Amino acid sequence: MFALPFIRRETPALEGEKVRLRLPQIGDYREWAELRAASRAFLEPWEPRWMPDELERTAWRLRINHYRQDHAQGCAMAFFIFEKSHGKLAGGITLGNIRHGVSRSAQIGYWIGQPYGGQGLMTNAVKTLSRFAFGELKLHRIEAACIPENIRSVRVLEKAGFRREGLLRSYLKINGIWQDHYLYARIVDDDLPAM
Predict the structure, then answer these.
(1) pTM for the predicted model, two decimal places
(2) Distance (Å, whole) CA 43 – CA 23
């Protein structure tokens, strides 16, 4: 793949009302590993099956390298979500499968640590990243998929102005099982709810 000129390599931190989004750094390992470990039971039903070395430092380095390569190639941008008032890592959000040309679209995925659920941080992060995607990246459409039983994720997307467009049968293998997902999307012309 080749580097795309429309994405600056040094993406600035993105500021929302409740959150600050920035690219993950190698020094984030300890805080990330502690939050993920403490939130494992909360996250596992909604994520791909965790690898045995999921939280090891070696796997972390590979993850960071993957994030950097995707960013340099212009195909994805991973951000960590920091709770603004205390500066603590709360979760992560990724703009992936970035396509330009006739599509000008991307997919959004996210996770939040259990202590930060239900505080509006993820909704604010999705809105903040959407503004960046439609503004800076000039995208036309952003999609997100979630398991129908993940009521929290459904609420996040709907509060962030995404509309349900359909059901994707057996779409992603989550926690070892092929799962149906609702497809949600926003287009640039949709009214973006207030931050």
Answers:
(1) 0.91
(2) 21
